[in-house]
Amino acid sequence: MGRRKTCPGHALLEDPQVRRWYEDLGQAALSTANVRLGRLGNFCEAAKKSPKALLALSEAARLAVLQDFIQAEQRRGMAGSYIRSTRTAVASYFAFAGKKLSRLPKIRDAYGRPTLENEILPSQEELSRIFRAATLRDRAAAALVAHSGLRLETLGNYRGTDGLRLRDFPELLIEGKKVTGPTSGTTVSFEKTPTLVVVRPGLDNEGGRLSKAGHRYITFLSEEGCRYLAEYLESRLRESAAQTPSGKTFSVPGEVMSPDTDVIHPNGQGRALVRDDKGEIVRAPGGLAAVKMFVTTINAGDGIRNAIRGSGFQFRPYALREYWETQMATAENRGKIAHRFVLYMGGHTGDISARYSTNRAHLPPSLVEELRGAYQRSEPFLSTIPTKNDTAQAVNSTRILLLGLKYTEEELAKVDLENLTTAQLQELVAKKLTQPPVTTSPPTAPNPMKKHRVVHPTEVSKYLDQGWVPLMKLSETEIVLSPPAA
Prior knowledge:
Blueprint: H1 16-26, H2 30-47, H3 51-56, H4 59-75, H5 80-96, H6 114-117, H7 124-133, H8 136-148, H9 152-155, E1 172-174, E2 177-178, E3 188-190, E4 195-199, E5 217-221, H10 223-237, E6 240-243, E7 249-252, E8 274-275, E9 281-283, H11 297-310, H12 319-333, H13 339-345, H14 351-357, H15 365-382, H16 388-404, H17 409-412, H18 422-433, E10 453-455, H19 460-465, E11 469-475, E12 478-482
Antiparallel strand pairs: 1-2, 1-3, 4-5, 6-7, 8-9, 10-12, 11-12
């Protein structure tokens, strides 16, 4: 196995000034600190000068070195956004050391991101293909990003020291009971769907925030996402078989979960540790202390990327969060959800987060249920399979149609409306339309001056009182009525 590539600026940490700058950046975001350290390392390598040597130059000389670097990178064809990132890192280091530049060199197309300009976000059908190509773990992770709008760092922070825990799903049940202590079992369910997801600030000195804006907020996971998450957690709860290096098979007990159990487990850790022929843990790479308890942001992104590539697409993992934002914007345009709710559930600051996060208060139950209802109305725009709400509406429309055709409640009780096929519905409609009239008066032809009318299912009963007759069902919201006889 090849040696793992280290951060280009890692050696610079031997300089006390660079280390202080790096640690100061890490207080806000460790990932940003590492990116800027790498950019500074690349700059120093290109300029053939150490950070200390750069600080010893006059401002005019430092500005010239930076400008030469920018022009050289532009000649290499590097993206403007990448060059701007390096300029930001270098300027940040100079400012921290008390050598702030009075101006910054210009960069052509500084915000250009050519790799993203032509990126098209996945459709619902394409997201379905991604789900089908994923492992149980990566499918659950992808659903949390695409259906809950979570950022990758919420699944697990930069160093894998924190991430989503079972207690962040207060409506999750194992064997029908809430997880309040060590719990084992085989079935996972949810009290309500869509289910509540709590995103904690999760600030620590190691891995960074789970909430980018640094405040607590809630979002929801769809009925489809709950199913995928339950299947993944159940696979961890069940006993499984494994093999030792010599090929001997042994039984691995199911996981005992607690409120602090990680939701998305890191690959190659935990139950996959190196074991001897008795099945006992011998050693993890780097020692047992090196085992990460949570998935890292990079590991979570790699798993989702594998599912995307396996389904034949080239989307970035972050495109799944952009899918959530786009689909929720569509739902907002259709009047399903308020804009402020979309902002709040996406983790952005706004009037709801300002009111209930600044004072460290939790949302009142009535507002939580209002948010849940708005999310549920928007769920069909996110989900790749029919939801319970869709099914209920379809059943209700079919019931109204059949009642309009003079079927009785007793007759409908014998019909499986939820699984009724189109052919079966047509047969039921034809059965009533071809029945002989109940009166002995001669049949009359429809009034030629009147045309058929398409109405909403809720309006059918009003037209039936006027003599109109249901003719056919066009969709869940459209029913064709035949005009009354002359």
